[in-house]
Write a structure and sequence with these properties.
This protein is of the alpha+beta class. It has two domains: 36 residues; 125 residues, Sandwich (Immunoglobulin-like), CATH 2.60.40.4150. Helices cover 28% and strands 30% of the residues. It contains three helices and eight strands; from the N terminus they run αββααββββββ. The strands form two sheets. It has a four-stranded mixed beta sheet, with no helix packed on it. Strands 3-2-5-6 form a four-stranded antiparallel beta sheet, with no helix packed on it.
């Protein structure tokens, strides 16, 4: 059996303390490093936890045969991918959106906007959602101009400010960010 003697009078307990402190320091360094990365991401990369949308309309939007303005339903989808949404036409999304987009829909919400009104939508943003697709269920949608729908990428969203969408005659218009 070997016996270790210390020339400078350092006790084994002191060496154990030094080793324990050094080894725990490695974990502390990792924790500090992880915290720094997390702080950097929060400063330079925006995390969208809540989807904020504001809708505005005028009194002349979505009128009936007698030029009486009607309320407009806006449907908002959070999607994994957008290809199926882009391929679908108005009638398909109106009648069978859940079947058409079944693999991509993570969340869905309807908002009703009154004539000459404003409506807001705040909903939790799904972690896997890469796109927010918005369709206006107009009485006479602008099929030819394809303005009845708008798609936003997750990067187009702001964690603090709502994206504004204006309802126009048969279509939607994404307003610039402030």
């Amino acid at each position: 059996m070997a016996v270790i003697t210390f020339k400078f009078g350092v006790a084994p307990a002191a060496i154990s303390l030094i080793l324990a402190t050094t080894l725990s320091g490695c974990g502390l360094t990792q924790s500090v490093s992880d915290g720094t990365v997390s702080m950097t991401k929060s400063l330079f990369y925006k995390t969208i936890k809540t989807l904020h949308l504001d809708f505005t309309t005028r009194s002349t939007v979505n009128v009936d045969d007698n030029n009486a303005p009607l309320a407009t339903v806006i449907r908002v989808y959070q999607l994994r991918e957008r290809q199926a949404f882009d391929r679908a036409d108005y009638q398909t999304l109106l009648t069978s959106a859940n079947e058409t987009l079944k693999g991509d829909i993570l969340a869905e919400r309807d908002v009703t906007v009154m004539p000459d009104g404003v409506a807001g939508l705040d909903m939790p943003m799904e972690a896997g959602a890469r796109y927010v697709a918005v369709i206006g269920l107009f009485r006479s949608p602008d099929i030819q101009g394809d303005t009845w729908r708008v798609v936003l990428e997750r990067n187009d969203l702001d964690p603090d400010e709502a994206r504004r969408i204006q309802l126009e005659n048969g279509g939607l218009k994404l307003l610039p960010e402030d």
